[in-house]
């Protein structure tokens, strides 16, 4: 039964984008700009490199500057989140809504910002690009679907934006 008219409570699911929605800016551009790599980023962007691959390359550039994962996290903690957005998220969560994020950012950026703002526990699911810290301490960013290995079957979205679950 679907819960409508059955006496069962239906839970409201609210799906947020992250960049320029929860966060007032684009987290990728924020980090690139804060580390003074905007020109390098623009040059690489002109090569047609897929966005996620480009951001992985930018993390390599940041690492080569001697910056640590802690430096990146500190940078992310300075990104602005509007107080009304934080309040709305908390209100929706406390009202029982199931909050989720669907984003082309990456897990490290999103988790760092949400944890800093005390919002991580408000979200039940985050669909975004995976990231991890490798053995040399560098942040690696991967696409949600590895479009270099196989096509995931979605003809609606660009490969880096699609978060269709197979």
TrEMBL record:
Q: Which residues bind substrate?
A: 28, 104
Q: What is this protein called?
A: Inorganic pyrophosphatase 2-like
Q: Which UniProt keywords apply?
A: Hydrolase, Magnesium, Metal-binding
The family database entries (InterPro entries) matched by this protein are listed as: HAD-like_sf, HAD_hydro_PyrdxlP_Pase-like, HAD_sf, Pase_PHOSPHO-typ
Q: Which domain of life is it from?
A: Eukaryota
Per UniProt, Mg(2+) binds at 17, 19
A Gene Ontology MF term for this entry? metal ion binding
**Species whose genome carries this gene:** Punica granatum
Pfam families in the record: Put_Phosphatase
Residues of the active site are: 17 (nucleophile), 19 (proton donor)
Q: Which cofactor does it need?
A: Mg(2+)
The keyword Transmembrane helix belongs to this UniProt entry's keyword annotation? no
Respond yes or no to whether keyword Ubl conjugation is given for this record: no
């Amino acid at each position: 039964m679907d819960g409508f008219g059955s006496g069962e409570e239906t839970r409201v699911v609210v799906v947020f984008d992250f960049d320029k929605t929860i966060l007032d800016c684009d987290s990728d551009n924020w980090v690139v700009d804060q580390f003074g790599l905007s020109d390098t980023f623009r040059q690489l962007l002109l090569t047609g490199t897929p966005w996620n691959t480009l951001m992985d390359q930018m993390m390599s550039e940041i690492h080569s500057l001697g910056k640590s994962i802690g430096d990146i996290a500190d940078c992310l903690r300075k990104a602005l989140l509007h107080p009304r957005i934080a309040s709305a998220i908390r209100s929706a969560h406390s009202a029982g809504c199931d909050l989720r994020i669907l984003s082309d950012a990456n897990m490290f950026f999103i988790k760092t910002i949400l944890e800093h703002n005390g919002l991580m526990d408000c979200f039940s699911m985050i669909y975004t690009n995976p990231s991890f810290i490798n053995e040399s301490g560098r942040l690696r960013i991967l696409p949600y679907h590895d479009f270099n290995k196989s096509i995931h079957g979605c003809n609606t979205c660009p490969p880096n934006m699609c978060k269709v679950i197979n």
